[in-house]
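Example 3.2
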Amino acid sequence: MNKETYFGVDVSPLSYEEIVESLKQRIAAGEQSTIIAVNPEKVMAAQENAQLRELINGSTYQIPDGVGILLASKLKGGQIQSRVTGVDMMERLLLMAEQEGYKVFLYGAKEEVVSKAFENIQEKHPAINLVGYENGYLQDHDALVERINESGADMLFVALGSPRQELWIRENMPRLNVKVFQGVGGSFDVMAGHVQRAPEGFRKVGLEWLYRLMKEPKRLKRQLVLPKFLIKVLFNRKEQAS
């Protein structure tokens, strides 16, 4: 797949539907796949953090989670047509699992969060095959790997925060029989109903970040990365036209 690159960081231009279809083919071929969300904050952090850049670029799909990535693609005449958010990508994969019969395991977050997320997913997708969950505080990772393999899980969603969740996936993927891995950050909190997403109107126009900023003014410092990123893209369009 042809990927766009921003300051050394790859981003996949595929839509939700294209990723789902690609994953079906890779699962059928017995290939393992990883999904990581990319936003301007991660791209800027990767300038100073070679390990983070390697984690992102080593993934199968780097989804354009931030509106800044979409705007940057438009500035450089790229192919990214819409955001692919981590939580919505997880929801699409859960639907795919329900329709195709793939087995799903959840790992991460607090016990009360992951257990409620597990319960709510089962209620929303009655035909889905959820085969287990574990909170993010388990210390015996060897036992966890064994348990996931014994469950027969095809998909594993890991909510440990980034880049910890991606590091865990990279370290344990060779020992796991899972075919699809996604680091989902705070998505379990959303699935559990502990965190409310922005209203659909905000999400449709790419202003979910503004809603979250209004709810949590302390995020202002993090959000200032967006204009810095776009200015950098604007002044480096020729270099980034890859």
